Amino acid sequence: MRLLPIARSANGDAVFWLCDPRDPDSWDIVVFRHQSGYGEERWIRFEMRFAEFLLGTLSGTPPSPFSDASFVEPPHAYQSWRQHR
């Protein structure tokens, strides 16, 4: 299994593309939770593309895969690194 890192949360959670098939359009998303509660999975797999994952994460579907519970609290907005200076 090959993982390609594509995003990271402020709490150290990491988002990867799971590079299994040769076709990049069919790569799933995998999240590694840096902090997880007892009995919770540290690795979570989402059978969806990155755009669908990002939109779903910001809108609350699927449930937030990140350790930080406050991540799901709206409002969310995209901000370019150019705007963030």
Task: Tell me about this structure.
- By secondary structure, the chain is of the alpha+beta class.
- Helices cover 12% and strands 24% of the residues.
- The chain contains one helix and four strands, in the order E-E-E-E-H.
- It has one helix at residues 50-59; strands at residues 3-8, 14-18, 28-32, 43-46.
- A four-stranded antiparallel beta sheet has the order 1-2-3-4, with no helix packed on it.
- A hairpin with a 5-residue loop joins strand 1 (3-8) and strand 2 (14-18).
- The chain is globular, with a radius of gyration of 13 Å.
- The termini are far apart.
- The mean pLDDT is 81.
How many β-strand runs? 4
List unreliable stretches of 5+ residues: none
Provide a count of the helices. Answer: 1
The portion of residues assigned to helices is 10-25%
Strand order of the largest sheet: 1-2-3-4
Largest sheet: 4 strands, antiparallel
Structural class: alpha+beta
Shape, please?
A: globular
Mean pLDDT: 81
- How widely separated are the two ends? 37 Å
- Helix and strand string, N-terminal first? EEEEH
Portion in strands: 15-25%
What kind of oligomer do you see? single chain
Rg (CA only): 13 Å
